[in-house]
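USER: Fancy drafting a protein?

ASSISTANT:
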Amino acid sequence: MIGSTSLPLFVCLLLAALTGFLFVDPALIPRMLPQQMFAGIDAFSLMAIPLFILAGNLMNAAGLTPRLIDLAKALVGHLKGGLGYVNVVSSVFFAGVNGSAVADTSALGSLLVPAMKKEGYSKAYAAGLTAGSSLIGPIIPPSIFMILYASLTNTSVGDLFLAGVIPGLILGLAFMIMNGVYAHRANLQVTGRKPSLGGILVALYRSAPALMAPFIIVAGIVFGFVTPTESGALIVAYAAILGLVTRNLNWQGIRQAVAETVRLTSAIFMIIAASAVVSWLLAFGQVPSQFSVLLEPFADSPTLTLLLLSLITFVTGMLMEEVSALMLLTPVFVPVAMQAGVDPVHLGIVITMNITIALITPPMGACVFVAAAVSKVELSMMFRSIWPFVLVAMCTLVLLILMPQLTLFLPNLLE
């Protein structure tokens, strides 16, 4: 609130826009500011955002979190450093349910960090792994970041969702390798028993309804049965019916899920609207074309162009909220990348990955604050211990830049 010690982000963006109008032409304020704010959110595809958020909240309210964790334990919990693997695999499963890194960090951190500490992990590492593996959420569909990118660039949401599957799994594998190294160096003991085939099948059966969600979303969009927005509505109905049939979702849970969806959606859409004004001012001032001229010496190399854009995004993400960074940078980056011959789907995954990494980079990374709070780790310690996880994510990003087919294989396969 304006009377408090800080301003809402959308207010800061609007103040920046108003300042820009004063330098451009103050007479444009009453006409262009409201016009661009409403134009920024006047996109049918953006309606998918509140629907996917609501679906994730309904599934969480239906108590599916423990079932997904039980499945992860059945698959990898018996290995050395098993709970670390469970943490990462649970994040992969959660990615298809809600696609929110912050929600993933909060849910898994409160459940797994205390257990990991008992198994011999340091609390800082357990919190860092929880925050790091939560980055898988916005990469594996559904992804709010990808929907925003698609609305700005007219890129196919279905292609972006498909393109995110392999990068998300690679990121999960990278964190599992990191956890294996840690478990070896810390000499962690095996604490879980290898489950029987029957135990794995039971865990799979109990969690199957939640695991079906991403397949319903992606298949419906890719094969043309539904639009992204219709897919969101379909998955909301699926989550509600699933929760009511299993009797794990009551009316109080539904009300809480709707209230949380309204709160988060309103914040996102206000940021989108304010960012649209700033983006219009940047376009009016020909910033994208000037930026293209600045990077023209590197235009012959798509790889070098993506590395430079990633470096800029990394620095920006450290200092700016992720949705606003995506909304502001994408219109500037797209012309540069297209000139360099970068595939728009590949660019979308690279930008999404960059923006997602910003969730764990100090001093603005939201997942760092959430992990510190739920794990009861001092924030200063989290800031110091999170960097190895940032490095793992950055190495995965570089791999995706150097090998575009890791991103484009599934979209090309189903063309």
